[in-house]
Amino acid sequence: MPTPARERFAQLVSNPNDDFDLAEAALLIAQDAQPEIDIAAYLHRLDTLASLAQDRLPGTPEASTIVDQLNQLLFQEEKLSGNVTDYYDPRNSFLNEVLDRKTGIPITLSVIYMEVARRLGLSLVGVGFPGHFLVKYAGPNGEVVLDPFQGGVRLSHEQLAQKLREMYGDGNPFLGQIPQLLTPASNEKFSSVCCGI
Predict the structure, then answer these.
(1) 66-76 burial by CB neighbour count: b if 16+ within 10 A, else e?
(2) Is the CB of residue 108 less than 8 Å from the CB of residue 98?
(3) Averaged pLDDT for residues 89-115
(4) Dist CA 44 CA 42 (whole Å)
(5) What is the pLDDT of residues 144-155, one digit of tens each?
(6) Could you tell me which of 74, 146, 167, 182 has the fewest CB atoms within 10 Å of its CB?
(7) How would residue 196 be classed by pLDDT, with cut points 50, 70 and 90?
(8) What angle (nearest 5°) sits at the alpha carbon of residue 10, between those of residues 12 and 194?
(9) What pTM was estimated for this model as a whole?
(10) Cα 52 to Cα 33: distance, rounded to the nearest angstrom
């Protein structure tokens, strides 16, 4: 029998415009496993992070300025980081746990990054890059790929190719497909991957 969290999740992701709050979707899945979670409190934490960043931004900031401020706030001040010591800890997949413990995996850190950015008016999209989830935005000089697991660092195509070589070797077929590998994941697909459903 569906729980209220699952029912709300289904309602959320059935939006035909693929436009819904990824953080709420991820928290609903966490609430299904941990019913005591106060979703509104965690969404408020994301709102607060966005307010802190907004207070430091100029009137009409460039996307790169927002990204720099996000990186400073989330990774330098809030100390969010990729969990390199216990990557497969199940808590890395629950957004509330990532916010509380300040460590997670690429996809949950990407949800936080994207949702705080959205609250600041910057539209980021998730990218299901092989072996490592990333985010990107369309900048004035083209797309900018960011890695929240590595502190929001910007990645060039050459650096992405190096990641592919490290994961799959020099002869892997992905090397010639980097532009196609950077296709945005839909919010519905993203929430399904994020939440393991």
Answers:
(1) bbebbbebbbe
(2) yes
(3) 97
(4) 5
(5) 999 999 999 999
(6) 167
(7) very low
(8) 80
(9) 0.89
(10) 31
